[in-house]
Specification:
Blueprint: E1 5-9, H1 13-24, E2 28-32, H2 36-44, E3 48-49, H3 53-59, E4 62-65, H4 70-78, H5 83-86, E5 92-95, H6 101-113, E6 117-120, E7 123-124, H7 126-132, E8 135-140, H8 143-156, E9 157-164, H9 168-196, H10 201-208, H11 216-226, H12 237-254, H13 259-270
Parallel strand pairs: 1-2, 1-4, 2-3, 4-5, 5-6, 8-9
Antiparallel strand pairs: 7-8
The structure holds nicotinamide-adenine-dinucleotide.
């Protein structure tokens, strides 16, 4: 076995695109997902499929995880049919899930005791970035483990930020997504004011993006998904509400006071009444 063999566990919007990108880059990819739809899509793209997480870990020394939440990561690593139960040795796990730093650190210690390694590498850039291999990755882990993960990280990303020890990538990702969530609210409110005062929304966003009030949301989300009316980013309200909730938990755990961001978090939580979990996360911009 060589580190050119990679398992991808979780073949949803992000994982399927990552599996295809890795296969295109010359890795031998084995995928696993319990869902019939994701399995069919991966099979159609020529990705070999395993029947369980343990079988996927058995097929490759390196595994990329792209799962909804920390509990799913825990299940594939320490559950009945997961890595720890498999008796396999010396696996490198690259967790791209937007997960919980405390859980990541705990799982990394459990894996290390059994001779495995964990690198957290959550991503920004959506399914399009995963498909093009141009994600931004926020990486946490020991230097030697990151060096081993480097060929896979390079194939998936255009920009790597080394954030510190294991768990640090997940901290940075929660900070990033909390800000993105808040900026969607603040930019939407400010744009509504500008439009009400007589300026066309596209003109306003164009001018704003040349000024100091710009944000990633005004530069990317407004032109691509909101003003276009497409709302097809591939990132859902449910996942963003999860991330905002995790960031609030992190603020609580660290004793951080964030009065403005608490208001933003409440608005995201309350949006569940009007916008279901499967809606595009940019829809929050249209809520009054
Ligand atoms: P998704 O819901 O489309 O995919 C998740 C997949 O995991 C599903 O196919 C599901 O069947 C599978 N899954 C669930 N339990 C599993 C298990 N035990 N073993 C294997 N597979 C299992 O979600 P997504 O949009 O692909 O996001 C994946 C992760 O990436 C999330 O943590 C999300 O927050 C993060 N993320 C998503 C985006 C985006 O734009 N979609 C961007 C950055 C980060």
């Amino acid at each position: 076995m060589t580190d050119r063999q990679v398992a991808v566990i979780g073949l949803g919007n992000m994982g399927a695109a990552m599996a295809e990108t890795l296969a295109r880059a010359g890795f031998a990819v084995t995928g696993y997902d319990p869902g019939a739809g994701p399995r069919a899509r991966a099979a159609a793209a020529g990705i070999a499929l395993a029947d369980s997480p343990a079988a996927a870990f058995a097929a490759a020394p390196v595994a990329v995880l792209s799962l909804p939440m920390a509990r799913h990561v825990e299940a594939v690593l320490t559950g009945d049919d997961g890595l720890m139960a498999s008796g396999l040795a010396d696996r490198l796990v690259i967790d791209t899930t937007t997960s919980e730093p405390a859980v990541t650190r705990r799982l990394a210690a459990v894996l290390a005791d059994a001779g495995h390694a964990l690198v957290d590498a959550p991503v920004s850039g959506g399914p399009a970035g995963a498909a093009a291999g141009t994600l931004t990755m926020m990486v946490g882990g020991a230097a030697a483990d990151i060096a081993r993960a480097q060929p896979v990280l390079d194939a998936l990303s255009a920009k790597l930020s080394l954030c510190g020890d294991v768990g640090a990538g997940h901290v940075v990702k929660l900070v990033n997504n909390l800000l993105c969530a808040a900026h969607l609210l603040t930019v939407s409110e400010a744009v509504r004011m500008g439009v009400a005062a007589g300026v066309d929304a596209e003109t306003l966003i164009g001018a704003l993006n040349a000024g100091s009030g710009r944000a990633g949301v005004s530069e990317v989300n407004f032109p691509r998904w909101i003003l276009s009316g497409l709302f097809d980013s591939g990132f859902t309200m449910g996942l963003m509400r999860k991330d905002v909730g995790l960031a609030q938990t992190l603020a609580g755990d660290t004793g951080t006071s964030m009065p403005l961001l608490d208001v933003a978090a409440r608005l995201w939580r309350d949006s569940a009444d009007a916008l279901g979990d499967d809606e595009d996360f940019n829809r929050i911009a249209a809520l009054d």
